[in-house]
Amino acid sequence: MSAVKTVIVSGSASRPSRTLILAEQISIALSQQLELDLHVVDIADVGSDLGRALTRDDLSEAAERALGVVESAQILIAATPVYRGSYTGHFKHLFDLIAQEALVDVPVILAATGGGQRHTLVIEHQLRPLFAFLQAFAVPVGIYATHTDFRDGVLTSELVRARVSLAARQAAQLVRPANSARVSGSRAALSASRDAPIFRATTEHGQS
Amino acid sequence: MSREVVLIAGSPQPQSRSSRVLQSLDERLARAGIRSKTYGLSDFVADDLVFARTKALAVQQYLADIQSASAILFSTPVYKATYSGGLKLLLDLIPPEALRGRSVLAIATARVERHLTGVQRAFEELYRFFDVGLALPSVLLIDEQVRLEPARGVVYEHAAESAIDTAATALLHALALPSHGADEPPAPRA
Known about the structure:
With about 210 residues, chain A is of the alpha/beta class.
């Protein structure tokens, strides 16, 4: 298999960002399993352009390119800081602009950074339903880290690092070759039937 | 003078269904003599939202109005089976303790009914986070109950109209509760 197009989406507008550090750590773990073609879509870069766009048609070229990168990912690393108990507004706004069928069957690693242990379930209660709606393959192991898991800009927690490895291994197993007939078939079938019920077995449509 | 109610419109489109429902609710409050202020995404510079610039004048006014409001209403279209990123950007500006003890009411419009359960659950999680006082029943409508007609403006299906009436009544009752409102300092979290 040629290099796997892997895309980090980081929902943090701040620099330096623990969220971005965590996402990069996940990409390093993935690169031990697969040859990666790594792309980073960082809200700190594209947030202003996305914020000015109310619909997809309003997007600047740079923002449209960024969304195109997300939509063509073979593996997605979706990472966000926890704001008000959930993903950030920018993170959600980015995925609001993503085509509904674009991430069908795409392996996704979910990651979040928060201020304390009380937000640990943000991955299960907020992120996972979003990617379930998009029919992506969110891997079972989600990664949550707090500021105590980092030291001097490095993810130092052994526990979190172990979860990073586990999630990377799970995602690597799910990668499909680019332009696989099954993936593109099911995506095309879904986009052709946008008004039809969304929750259905996509593999059957892939054969048509 | 303090505002009694702050309305937050989370749709990127000011003339969207969810914004129109919010506006209709506001009209009912106005008829009952309630003062209100509506905020939407277009009231802010994009970068103030992206970088949460709480020192920006528009953001300070927004936060001051929320601080002095007894009730907060917000509306959203349902995108990806939950509230919009636009609404979340406006909520991200609000300090975690600013809604403590306040009455809240949410409005959502969705293309199909099953997505309304997802957004309701997401609202409840926000309420828990913000530790709100009274969470009034949400107004959850599907698009076909809210018709936008160029000549007549917004036309509600009967059930939608009565949902909005019921919400307005509930809100007026909440605002009339004794010692309810911004004059009472919120109790410190235990």
